[in-house]
Design a protein that fits this description.
465 residues; alpha/beta; Amidase signature (AS) enzymes; 11-stranded mixed beta sheet; 11 strands
Length: 465
Amino acid sequence: MSNAPIPYLSISEVGAKFRDKSLSSVEVTRALLERIGKLDSRLHSYLAVTEEHAMRAAERADRELAAGRARGPLHGVPIAVKDLCNTAGIPTTCASRVLRDYKPESNATVVDRLEAAGAVMLGKLNLTEFAVAWYHPELPVPLNPWSADLWPGASSSGSGVATAAGLCYGSLGSDTGGSIRFPSAVNGIVGLKPTWGRVSRHGVFALGESLDHIGPMTRSVRDAAIMLTAIAGSDPKDPTSLSAPVDDYIAALDRGVKSIRIGVDEDYIAAAEAEVADAVVEAIRVLERLGGKIVKTTLPDIAAAAEAWMNICAPETAAAHEATYPSRAADYGPGFRSFLELGTRIRGQEYAKAHMVREGFANRLQDVFAQVDLIACPSATSAGLPATAMPPDARMLAGPNPLLRFTAPFNLSRNPTVSLPCGPAKSAAPPSLQLVGPRLGEAIILQVGEAFERATDWHSQRPPV
């Protein structure tokens, strides 16, 4: 058990304290709500704080735990969800004027599953408008807790900021081209993008239907495994959810790295900035010392895959918004509106060609997993991009986009990834290591990520808030 202050305990640690009665859920939930009140007027990670809802859930958790009805490691633990996940009777705005008055009648499946596991929802987290790259000009922008001059990580930025700053113990993010991995990398936390279909998307507003993944963002690999265990599995309300049995992710954490084949494409790693590339290479050496077997490999054409992403995502986004665009075009912010405009201009032939690039890349990537158990690479090009990293207009993203090179290809291929800190924090968050697994290989990437955390201490670094 660590000596961390209450806001920075892990999910497993705070849950254990609830069960041994050294802390109560009410006590901890109140402490986090007070911390949000103190810090979030500057950080802007929450769009809505659901204080009454949270306190009722915490009181219920304490009653159940006192009666011996423990639901598992999340029981009583305060978390938060990205504000594109439906929450019954609580606004779900997607950070846009278009949905500013929308109160769903039912929860997203992932919210139901977290609440069934006993988690306490603190509120709804900030994001770029409808989860692309731009914030609506009428809403505050999340502040990177490592430095106000740094990019907070695009779409799931509120989830990244809140988790890094100790304003929740874990959060939900979504990832269509990097939006779990970007905010995890630049805020110094762990982010897990599961296999496409491993986690239900029912009740989560779509960005690109064939690219969207929902996953946990936490401060440790073990906590990510705990949250994934709660939300993974088939859902009859989502016909794209996978029926394959859910692995025992928590049991996998103790298996170590011995004889695990780790694929390394040196040229791919070298495409990151030197600080990140060097940290990733050293992390791979750590895994080798722990017993991993390094296998040099060459990944399929990353640049072509990243370029194809735009011609798939933009039209799928336009399809998701056909009920309100262009009829309510004025209610969208200029950045997201430009993305919708781009989506309506991409021809069916261009979408079809991009789809075939996707299929070719995905098939060739799965062939790589015949030789390796997972792939190690960076999560992002840099640990600290400037706050102005994103161009103001979607048309400026046309063609090859280096920002997407370590993320979008694995949305196209639908493989699971986990991102975790792997070096010292200097003027920004720590560099981030990305482990990419075979489809439905969440257990093995969590297993290796946990072994790396046990051998290092990079994940315990905290921003100066």
